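Report of the visiting student (M.T.), summer placement. My assignment was to run the structure pipeline on a short list of targets and document each run. The first record concerns alanine--tRNA ligase.
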Amino acid sequence: MTPEQITGTFVDFYRERGHLLLPESSLVRPPDDPVLFTTSGMHPLTPYLEGRPHPLGRRLVNVQRCLRTTDLDEVGDSTHLTVFQMLGSWSLGDYDGPRSLRWGYELLRDGFGVERDRLHATVFGGDGPVGPDTGSLETWGELGVPVELTGHENWWSNGPTGPCGPDSEIFVWTGDTPPTGTPTTDRRWMEVWNHVQMRYHRDGDGRLGPLRQHNVDTGMGLERMEMVLRGGRSVFEGESFRPWVRTVTTLWQPDEETLRRVCDHLRSSVVMISDGVRPSTTGRGYVLRRLIRRMLTQLWRDDPSRTLSDLPGEPFRHTLDGFRLGTGFGDPRDVLLDEERRFRGLLRRGRPVVSRYRSRGPLTDEDYRYLHDTHGLPRDLVDGLLTEAA
Ligand code: ATP
Ligand code: MG
Ligand code: MG
Ligand code: MG
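After the run finished, the structure tokens were exported:
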């Protein structure tokens, strides 16, 4: 199945069950949101999960591009991306958790053809004042899907305060051998879908109370589902990454981990730029700048003459299409090339300065401040140049 077919199957399934399609949000959060980027499908729904009536009703479904800076260090493994797409469904004070799990199982089995013997669930087994999630436990038991009980790993919250509750995560076996172990004992169980029951609210003093309405929030990773349906070994083997992987391999022949990081950072940057983010020294722009510079650093480690201007237009178009994006905020390619030029210039000027400093011994905080204020060299760049010279 292509990403479009997976998305269509998911959305149709929930539409047939009374869910209305919620329009997708930008990655860029509005100024009153304390968080820089949309991190999940539920994120823009926060006020409605807390009780405000949603204009589209109590059953919603959507597709949402997401960005998690917290996952950056994991990018390069087989399942984590910086920017990814999340397929989501919600019950805003309507049906309960077991109903959501039953539908989830039905969609996996009948819509996507994932058989029960490749599935494993995890369920909240109780932690502190809250007891085990017996509803989910019984439901999985009736469906015949094996369950592993955990503690806080299956307690969902979106920060220190706000809605929270137990969740049940669904894993699919991705190994070449018949399934063994459980999600916590064998990494070949990959999480594809999370069903959260938001029933509690934590206040500013850390006290847990009931939430005004009981919600269900689910999120499925599109690229992970694609990997499951292709029987691939990583999310980079699917249609979503095909032109990036082909192009980067042909141009630069990097090792596997570099290939994954470079493809992730390129695709993620294209989506961020298309949502209006531009490289800068603070906030969202700094996240983008770091992403681009990390990627260039990886590419230049083996050959400093490599340049993004060798990238053809196809992977760019493919990503914009895949994310249903236009070029209203300008051409992502131009932004990448401009940032490459700046970074190259900065390195050229910075190298001799940093090596002079290095010969005098370890750098002090004052040295870092001076290099930043006078030469425009940020600390992480100076550290990079120091390692390079070592
Ligand atoms: P993991 O434990 O694998 O890091 P998670 O529990 O942090 O995932 P959720 O917050 O439950 O993820 O998000 C819902 C779904 O979104 C996950 O089940 C997964 O399919 C997908 N997902 C989450 N993070 C990523 C990511 N960095 N890249 C790709 N897909 C992701
Ligand atoms: Mg995670
Ligand atoms: Mg998880
Ligand atoms: Mg999860």
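The chain has two domains: 3-236, 243-389. The pocket of adenosine-5'-triphosphate (ligand 1) is lined by residues 40, 68, 71, 79-81, 84, 86, 191-194, 219-221, 223-224 (CB under 6 Å). I thank the supervising group for their guidance throughout the placement.
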